[in-house]
Amino acid sequence: MKIAVLSSHTSSLFWFRMDMMKDFIKHGHSVIALGQEPESNWKGKFEEYGVQYKQLYVERNGINPFSDIKTYRELKQFMKEERPDKIFAYQAKTVVYGSLAAKANGITEVYPLIAGLGSIFRGEGLKNKIIKTIMKTEYRLACNASKKVFFQNNDDKNEFVNNGLIEDEKIVIINGSGVNLEKFRPEPLPDTPAFLFIGRLIKDKGVMEYLEACKRIKAEYPEVRCLLVGPYDSNPSALQPEELQPFIDEGIIEYFGEQTDVRPYLKQCSTYILPSYHEGTPKTVLEAMAIGRSIITSDAPGCRETVTDGYNGFLVSVKDVNGLVDKMRILIEDQETNRIMAERSLKLAKEKYDVNIVNKSIMKTMGLI
Given this model, what pLDDT does residue 122 score? Predict the structure, then answer.
């Protein structure tokens, strides 16, 4: 069968969905991936894994209706020309317009993934309310045009159910995107306590709380390292370079920018921290668990799926810098507890988040095996 995988973020397609696409191919199917970045930059990289890549016009964070109409038309033309047998889509715009474009071409085998609802769904204010109302209508139409819909956590699923956006029989819960346990292997803990945040530098990821917590921790424990990996972003809540620079200049943060391979940085940390306001299921947390690291994350949608509080790490309230500092302090001062939590993270990664288990669930739902 021919499978189209749609996303509004090409690097996410390549780094987060390649294991899934490789499994599609291993079972005899062909795959076309659509993302927003130029084919000249990405086509060869995808082809190394047997995946065809096409550029799609989409403004990931924009709210211009004319841009969205252009995205819909391009997807509609793509469906007409390529006639994919099945479609897997994730991220808001490609979920909505991909599903509607498929329906316009009589394609019913559409399988969206709701991997986190983002700041619009949980924000406040009149403008946010208007956009949220529009998004609800769009998601309802997308779900109606889909055969099954994947969710990575119960919070997002319940949001859809409570708002009447989806029928119960279409819901499938999966354990995140999974983690490749052959690529992310257990690593010994460093001798010196070190914390790490990986992600796009947007405020919804909790990066400001992480920076403030690191500032306080470094004042108490100067020898502790605080690492930061990730790109600046076009999102309205993006951290600006001039906001981060003082933390670098004062020696609070070691900033490594965007990295295509995060394993060398995970290896350097003793605890992984993600104080995000909402996620689907954060893949970086799963990767940290797979190499054997304790986790501090938010008691928020998606994040809370990965941690049993006090077992493999700690949950803290959203935007709670004091709580974050308290948990960091515990793991600095009690290395034995940190070691035990790290071992439990690895156990959870193997039992629950193995990418092979997750991909098998996806392929079974899509009728590919």
Answer: 65
